Amino acid sequence: MTDTRRILDVLESKGVPLSRRDLLRLAGESGIALAGLAMLGVADPAPAGAQVGGTMRIHMSTDIQQIDPHLVTAWNDYSPWECVFSSLTALDRDFQPIPDLAQSWTQPDPKTYVFQLRKGVLFHSGREMKAADVKFSLDRIVSLGGRSKWYTLLLDLDRVEVLDDYRIRVSLKNPSAPFLANLAFAMIVAKENIDQIGLNPIGTGPFRFVERVPNSHLLVRKWDKFYVPGQPKVDEIRWVPAVEPATRVANLKTGTADIVSEVPYEAMRELRATPGIAIHEPKAASAYAVMVIKHAPPLDNRKLRQALAQLVDHDAINHAVFFGVGSAEEACNPFPVGHWAHSQVACPKYDPDAAKRLLAEAGYPNGIDLEWKVIGSRPDTVKVAEISKETFRRGGVNLKLVQLEFATWIQQVYRDKQFQLAQTIFLREADPDGLVVSALFTAGQNNPGGYSTKEMDDLLTQGRGELNRDKRRAIYKRISEIVAVDVPFIRLQSQPFVWATTAKVAGFYLNSQCRPFVALREMSLAR
User: Fold this and answer.
1) What are phi and psi of 270, to 5 degrees?
2) What are the residues whose beta carbons fall under 8 Å from the beta carbon of 210, sequence distance 6 or more?
3) What is the reported pTM?
4) Rounded distance, CA 525 to CA 52, Å?
5) On the CB side of 174, how many CA atoms lie within 13 Å of its CA?
6) For the chain, which residues score pLDDT lower than 50?
7) Closest Cα to residue 442, out of 458, 429, 418, 464?
8) How far is 470 from 466, CA to CA, in rounded Å?
9) In 321-351, which residue ranges form alpha helices assigned H by DSSP?
10) For position 525, what pLDDT does the model report?
11) DSSP letter string over 508-524?
């Protein structure tokens, strides 16, 4: 099926009948690619009574810590930049890159892209965005190195050149299969705002920042000069921390919240049966519950890490913590079952006796004491740690659990890297490179444990640069085999972030990282 016919079918199924001539005319007038029309021009049907406007109330599991889009670390911190900022590309509902701030692009050779920018795009200050802003933003991410979560997504970037106010040339070190998709996470910022970006961010996104009150709310308001006609559809979004899972569920049922994130797994059955509430699960389980390991003595000992991998009871964790949601199948494999890059590998099984033998070989015949830093405000991470404390004990490993407030945990684990073991959540993109690069590459931002080998760095670079899918699959198979044996971290299971909305909300959907992202522009609210 051609792209044109596919998009016509989509539009007609939404009640927007267009001829081929109409579609081509729209594409020509707007200057966006045909695939962009499917995402930027069409949203889900609105519920009866839906109107433009209103305040969308989104209740999250933790408070927001960071609003500089290049320095975000925690999952909930993504929320502001999804509202306030935009990038050259966006991802459609199938996780494919489409134009956003870039109106179009050409690729003169495998290592060069020339981007044509939209004209008339305004920052929330009223200044027009130009090519110099794109160069500054991409250069800033690279200069931040491991401090930026997005640094590893731009590893192939060599240089950015301004051709004129509305054109940039991006040169890569190597051909890069995921580069266009990775650009969706590289937000464009204003140079003059950098000193204040963590307090009063200015972007080009559908909403402008209004205020952030710690432990209370983050408020963004509709940007009337947003470059996509008719978007956003709501006047405001108020992001509210509601730490207790039961509180989020109660707020949704009583109408205090319109949308909640991280629906507690134990409440899913009840909410599915509740009239007027919709459950939203991501298409791809690209979020993983993971035990991160500090690669320093004593945990720089591979046999010790292998012993730990055999002390994780994946089935017990899946049933007791996640209530059977997600999958523990091939739990060690960084590429989930069903993904095109997945190849079967032999994962460690729960076996305390085998773990004791490995401990002895590692030099700890009498066992070892280790410290596990836990996010005390998250019931799931607390339960995983408590279960692991018992299963590890049976294999000769005594865990000291240290519960920390979320902001302190982020500081100690991700920023100061002062820990031995900790549970976190890896968020990944649809491309296999995005599934692994920031967690396995030297200085990767999701690699607080400091795992680093030349072989892994070389394989990751080869995987990005190889454009043939079969050859890429072979590279990622080797990466999977190394992860299973070298144990850079312990992947516990897939962990889909489940959202729920009331019947008043339309146009809501999740991207590959289990977040609404582009849907924030499209969703509407019945009054």
Assistant:
1) -65, -45
2) 219, 220, 221, 236
3) 0.76
4) 7
5) 15
6) 1-49
7) 458
8) 9
9) none
10) 92
11) ----TTSS-TTHHHH-E
